[in-house]
Prior knowledge:
Elements: H1 2-32, H2 35-40, E1 49-50, E2 61-65, H3 95-100, H4 104-120, E3 125-127, H5 150-165, E4 170-176, E5 189-191, H6 194-201, H7 203-210, E6 216-219, E7 223-224, E8 227-228, H8 233-243, E9 249-252, H9 260-265, H10 293-300, H11 306-322, H12 337-350, E10 352-356, E11 370-374, H13 399-406, E12 411-415, H14 426-438, E13 442-448, H15 471-481, E14 485-490, E15 505-509, H16 516-525, H17 546-549, E16 561-563, H18 572-577, E17 595-602, E18 606-607, E19 612-621, E20 627-637, E21 648-657, E22 662-670, E23 676-678, E24 683-685, E25 689-698, E26 701-710
Parallel strand pairs: 2-3, 3-4, 4-6, 5-7, 5-16, 6-9, 11-12, 11-13, 13-14, 14-15, 18-26
Antiparallel strand pairs: 1-2, 7-8, 10-15, 17-19, 19-22, 20-21, 20-25, 23-24, 25-26
Helix pairs in contact: 1-11, 4-5, 4-12, 5-7, 12-16, 13-16, 14-15
Residues 65-66, 127, 174, 253-254, 388 line the site of beta-D-glucopyranose (BGC).
Amino acid sequence: MRIKKLFLFFFLCNQFLLVAQEEINIEEIISKLTLSEKVAMCHAQSKFTSPGVPRMGIPELYMSDGPHGIRPEINWDDWGYANWTNDYVTAFPALTCLAATFNPNLSYEYGLNLGEEARYRNKDILLGPGVNIYRTPLNGRNFEYMGEDPFLASTIVVPYIKGVQQNGVAACVKHYALNNQELWRGHIDVKVSDRALHEIYLPAFKASVEKGNAWAIMGAYNKFRGQHCSHNDLLLNKILKKMWDFDGVVISDWGGVHDSNEAINNGLDIEMGTPSDKSVSKRYPYNNNFLGKSFEKKIIEGEVEEAILDDKVRRILRLMKRTSLNKNRPFGNINSKKHYETAYKIASEGIVLLKNDNDFLPIDKNKKITIAVIGENAKKRMTLGGGSSELKAHKEISPLEGIEKEFNNAIVKYSRGYSSDANKNTNDLKKQALLLAKDADVIFFIGGLNKDSFQDSEANDRKSYDLPYDQSKLISQISKINKNIAIILISGNAVKTDWKNDVKSIIQSWYLGSEAGNAIASILSGKVNPSGKLPFSFPNKLNDNGAHYFGKSSYPGNGSSQTYLEDILVGYRWHETKKIPPSFSFGHGLSYTSFELFEINSNQKKYSLGENIEISCRIKNSGKYDGKEVVQVYIGKINSKVDRALKELKGFKKIYVKANHSENIKIKIPVKSLGYYDEMISDWQVEKGNYLIYVGNASDNICDKIVVTII
Ligand code: BGC
């Protein structure tokens, strides 16, 4: 034990010395750079690179989207794809799926494998992950994020970052902050209380910095309290760099910089995406950017201190030392068997079984039955479209392909049923689908949203909460002639499910990437027992969601600003506190087996501030399949002196239990995580008194409650 401690001590001393040496070296480099060289490092030199210092052997920084795979190569100075042939990649499942696994180990594997692909493609900075909180189901980019709960998002994002960065590739966590809708994203001024900011919208970014040690952060497009987030004094200088001690680089969102003085003074380090101006210089067309020549001039004229520039350069060099200048970083690899296995594992563990009447699923794959697969999403490619997360997938197994392969004893017939193409005659499609449905033994309806504009896609929000292209009507019509129907929803957002009583089963599938079809088929056949849990609520109707309840001033705003009137009551916090039941709740997800939770206890009844609450329970798999379950612990304050959510997720554990077996579970919750953000003192406060601990397997399915006291 003593030797171990001694070893650790020497190891830490050595690490400290190495870091100190690196910092001294960075200062040496800075002292040798000219003013122009330093300024150049603070802005782009092409769509996805920023310059190094050629005469000193300091290489350029190569960046790439993110967050589900490495984006195909873009032309040097325009948005066209470069049409390379060596940029085909593995498409990993969307981050909503990763969050739905409730499995931090898988998140690490995701990051590690993705980082390897980034490395192989010679990228130094991965523009991801995204951790904006899911506030409204209309946000076109929710699929790139990790759901509505700050604790879940924080827990999942940290291992992702560590995995990516282990490859010597920086994760650039985005979009900091409050970019919770795409509509008017370039200018909407978000008004939100300090409490909601710190309790809901910042924790995943904070965890990325403090626990994940993220090397880069991307400023968002929108404004917050009057300043654009890519040069926002409060967010970048005061909170990120001062309070959280962030030592990495702040990169603007592409074209998110609007003001030279703010960009210089308010914490931005690298300006990206501001258009190049070839009339200034063909060789250096980005020198006219906000952090370009005008920045240099201000320093020469004494208007700005050079120390401000040096701080930016110091951060950039530090990031380079961790990435492009790190001689020990691995070479990476791409499209390996391992990467597809990881993509499959995450996809099949993230799929959520929402409903399963009379154990309709799984369908025995040995049966010689007729399966009707209906719906455009059975074939539609989902790695294309959606905006900057678009990928050139080396392979993408469609749901139909996966089903045909898995159910090879059955006769599988396909009909499109509806179309996202407005010019298509949908009457014919509908007729054909109904005809097919009539004689089938089982129907898999594969629909939902897609990556087209105004669906799950960047730059716009959805226009309606309904399933698009008249799918609800089609589902109801099919169910009238054949009741044996399972709906497979492919989306990154909740949709209206007013047809849910007409069908036997519903599966929430996500944008699952390369292995999509294999993962979906494995769930349908029972090869994989579903264990995903919803990372966001499915309201019955749009107005049941907290952001929408207060009307236009809350979402989408008046065109120039908006106020988050639901405040801290986002997602299930709203549904639970206001007693507005959702159609499917946060944390909900069924299994083909059944689990029982019992002997739920806390290790003490009273705790003081520095202690951990340890919740223990037994879980029994009382069904006939082996499976995984997520035990979830929510906590609420009894008689709080401030408004609080009825319950908040504070801990969870995913566990594998064999059929007819039991396991013991322990979940540790630090007392300090029970605090609320006190605006009077601008800090967290843990109230003394009684707290109710809810233990269950969904936010609305609690098996037992315990009271503990904080003294
Ligand atoms: C997106 C970012 C992305 C960047 C570069 C922006 O439009 O908001 O998420 O990383 O483009 O493609």
